Amino acid sequence: MRAARAAWRFLRGEPFAFVGAAIYALIVVTAIFADKLAPHDPREILRVGRRVARYLPISPEHWLGTTSSGRDVLSQLIWGTRSALQVGLTAAIVVVAIGTLMGLLAGYLGGWVDKLITRLADIVLSMPFLPFMLVLAALTQPGTTVVVACVALLLWPNTARVIRSQVLSLRERAWVEAARVTGCSNTRIMFVHILPQVLPLAALYGSVAIGWAILAEASASFLGFGDPNTVSWGVMLQEAYANQALGRGAWNWFTPPGLAIVSMVLAGFMISRGSEKLLFPKLADK
Amino acid sequence: MSAVIEARGLGKTFRTGRRTVHAVQDVSLSVSAGEALGIVGESGCGKTTTARMLLRLEEPTAGQVLFEGEDITHRRAAALLPFRARAQLVFQNPFDALNPRFTIRRTLAEPLRNFGIPEAEHAARIDAVMGRVRLTPASAWLDRFPHELSGGQLQRVVLARALIPGPRLIVADEPVSMLDVSVRAGILNLLRAARDELGLAAIYISHDLALIRYVCERTVVMYLGRIVEEGPTAELIAAPRHPYTRALVAAVPVPRVDQDRAALPIRGSLSDSPLGGTGCAFRDRCPHAMPRCEAEAPALREAGQARRVACHLEEGAPS
Amino acid sequence: MSLLSVENLQVHYLTGAGPVRAVDGATFAVAAGSILGLVGESGCGKSTLGRAIMGVLPDAGRIAGGSVVFEGRDLVALTESQRREIRWRRLSFIPQTAMNALDPVQRLRAQMLEVLMERGGLARAAANDRAAELFRMVGLDPVRLADYPHQFSGGMRQRASIALALALNPALVIADEPVTALDVIVQRQVLDVMRDLQSRLNLAMILVTHDMAVVAYACDRVAVMYAGIVVESGPVREVLERPLHPYTMGLTHAFPDVHGETGELVPIEGSPPNLLHPPTGCRFAARCPFAQTRCHEQAPPAVTEGEHMVACWRADEAPALRKAAASPATWAAVVPA
Ligand SMILES: Nc1ncnc2c1ncn2[C@@H]1O[C@H](COP(=O)(O)OP(=O)(O)OP(=O)(O)O)[C@@H](O)[C@H]1O
Ligand SMILES: Nc1ncnc2c1ncn2[C@@H]1O[C@H](COP(=O)(O)OP(=O)(O)O)[C@@H](O)[C@H]1O
Ligand code: SF4
Ligand code: SF4
Ligand SMILES: [Mg+2]
Ligand SMILES: [Mg+2]
What we know:
The complex is a heterotrimer.
Chain A: H1 2-13, H2 15-32, H3 34-37, E1 47-48, E2 51-52, H4 73-109, H5 111-125, H6 129-139, H7 144-170, H8 174-181, H9 186-222, H10 233-242, H11 245-248, H12 251-279, H13 281-285
Antiparallel strand pairs in A: 1-2
Helix pairs in contact in A: 2-4, 2-12, 4-5, 4-7, 4-9, 4-12, 5-7, 6-7, 7-9, 9-10, 9-12, 10-12
Chain B: E1 3-16, E2 19-32, E3 36-40, H1 47-54, E4 62-67, E5 70-71, H2 81-86, E6 87-90, H3 104-114, H4 119-132, H5 151-163, E7 169-173, H6 181-198, E8 201-206, H7 209-215, E9 218-223, E10 226-232, H8 233-238, H9 243-251, H10 291-295, E11 301-302, E12 308-309
Parallel strand pairs in B: 3-8, 3-9, 6-7, 7-8
Antiparallel strand pairs in B: 1-2, 1-4, 4-5, 9-10, 10-12, 11-12
Helix pairs in contact in B: 4-5, 5-6
Chain C: E1 4-15, E2 18-30, E3 35-39, H1 46-54, E4 61-70, E5 73-74, H2 80-86, E6 91-94, H3 98-101, H4 108-119, H5 124-137, H6 154-166, E7 172-176, H7 184-201, E8 204-209, H8 212-218, E9 221-226, E10 229-235, H9 236-241, H10 246-253, H11 293-297, E11 303-305, E12 308-310, H12 318-325, H13 328-332
Parallel strand pairs in C: 3-8, 3-9, 6-7, 7-8
Antiparallel strand pairs in C: 1-2, 1-4, 4-5, 9-10, 10-12, 11-12
Bound molecules: adenosine-5'-triphosphate, adenosine-5'-diphosphate, iron/sulfur cluster (SF4) (2 copies) and magnesium ion (2 copies).
């Protein structure tokens, strides 16, 4: 309850974070009620009389028109939130888990563990995202699992870095020393005493990972490595592209998923930008 | 009486980058059960480092630490658990000494759990220790978080956490310097009572001789990492022998209008002191420095009943 | 006539939960060339009072009433530009952490010259000479003007911020806890610098502290604050030897004296009231061993006898209360909520 009130006070003071959180909230609500909100089945091929209702423009009937195969764009967009959240959240959880663990170990244990993890993080950060994902997708089975794995494998260093620096300063706090004096093992100090303190920060980095994962999924789908049977924003874009929606000026088809992806990625960044002030007040003062 | 804790020629050298700091050199002391030893000296003279070595929070680079006769100088962390249960620390800053996300109950249960005390005994022991630090009724406090307590109340919890495993030694590093004057007395009284009633060996660290006098029978004075004088606290204050101790005693403010306001018998500040070389480390600030002080460091010698002083002036002085 | 006289000053901080009455009726005076000690536990409004006199309250702070008459003018009524004329030139301020007074990224010479040339209108050569003179005055080697603050020890920083505060020859300096973080030898040296300046320059000073011993050593008069109110004030000897307010009596028994008795110390149990909703009646009542029904109902008025001011209903019984206050049992009987 206290946390909720603190979060609310913080959001009120930080317009960036507020907008970001509002976008996420909208998407979550949409995903939950997708079946009620969507006017049509996203995969249903609609007809006008006996003809397939292709390329219908915006109308009261179809708020965002239809696709080349006669499917309702709005319904696809709405159902797309589910896959976006699914990919985003799984990726975020994995990123946060790996990143936090690595940061915790490096920051608390120091010494060679720190050197090793920092080195590994540097190597991973230097790897180009898209080629890595394409190679991985080509070697295994295309689909969301690959996307999630890629995001997790390549994005943990960002989280690990901030967690590490946070742990470095927490380690110096007197209550950590107190834990040692009262008989805690290193493992206990790390996981019982320090971990709960860094989780909020980790969650923040998770919010950025959500955006990244959605972008990655979209790129993969767009390049044809996605799962064509899912309804996702990436698959929508890919279909639109493959059917030359751009050339036909069917902007009502490709703009909405594009905007949805951009706004979700932006939301993640806005939340993290806004929270920087909270987490690193000195940084924001400069 | 046999010593609970004993240091023999203890030393700690920190190497940071290219700089080498001899934080503590050749410190020997011992404290028996029921006895309280004070360590005084100005900021940076090595008090905290000494205490941390005695508690094995820092590994000494020279000398030995003996706890109840056993050498623990280089004992590995995992093997220190039984020692930890018997040697506890009271922290300087109560606002930072408690995990902000633990309730008071959890903070007190943590040592019990770690030292393997059966869960069935926890509640009774927590209640007893809360009574000892006068946070009663315990039930009114145990479910609170640290941010809901004032500095004085927090320091009581810190003391309770130190007492709960049933230690034989308690070390308090500036236990009241962060607290308001009005609540300091309460904490000092508790510390004194705990030591008397439980027969603990206690070490208090402070730069304030008035506080040390209130809680310790015996005191060592440190200057730049070394012990320069040791003696019964009352005697040390009434008749300081080392020129540095004299300055320290003269500097303590007293709450009386009629008092000696003569200039201190000392020059400069700690940062002006020579950090190496031969000779007495205090010579640049000492009003009695003589050529010999430049050439030769004075050793810590017996100087009468239970007193030790490290100063060339003492030589030939009647002991 | 007094150099500064503060009359029933009220300072509020506007917060989401309502106004915090950080200073709620402070009355005292400072004579030219004298040092006034302002004591009280943390949060009782010492810093707020100092900042209000100086006119440098944080944004949320407002003077809500009373007057601050300095050299015959009421500072509360002045415009900001009139205040700026007085600030530094006649009245200056050393904030609680000396590091706040000093700019960490500028050498001390640059900081001194800025004050001397821009605010004081001195030419560069004259300003340089003056900077060196000021450093010598506070016992620092002028060579160290070339240093950055982080190259100084705590005591040296404190001296440098005193030098900065003295740059334009003010008549009154407000020093907020200038010696609290220092260890005893350095503390004594800084206090000696202040006493020396007082007698040489006829400087008046308000020295904020929570240590009665510091007051005894360095001050001529003392004002004891409790929960936003000055509860007792007078010459140091009067207040220390014949305290009239139970809180002052408590403070004098609360800490050991290096040469005095080693009998049991007497803590003042409990903590000060929340200044968001201060109690009606005497603010010390919840912790006072001598509180009576009337104390809880009605705030005691300030009474002055000679130079000694006190706000306590039972001040006329002071000699008997003093005797009782010396015993730990008296204070232990109070069990505040
Ligand atoms: N981890 C460390 N690395 C390098 N130098 C250190 C370290 N810890 C302490 N020192 C140095 O050792 C010396 C003694 O420090 P210590 O903390 O023991 O002083 P102290 O007497 O407790 O001072 P204070 O009264 O300010 O607490 C100082 O010069 C300090 O800078
Ligand atoms: N900027 C602020 N906003 C709101 N309340 C404040 C602010 N600064 C101080 N206070 C409150 O005003 C009271 C007096 O504070 P302060 O003047 O700093 O006391 P002292 O210097 O005696 O420790 C306290 O209750 C404190 O919490
Ligand atoms: S040995 Fe010399 S310099 Fe050192 S304290 Fe004694 S007289 Fe002073
Ligand atoms: S007025 Fe009453 S409560 Fe207040 S200090 Fe005096 S005796 Fe105590
Ligand atoms: Mg220390
Ligand atoms: Mg203050």
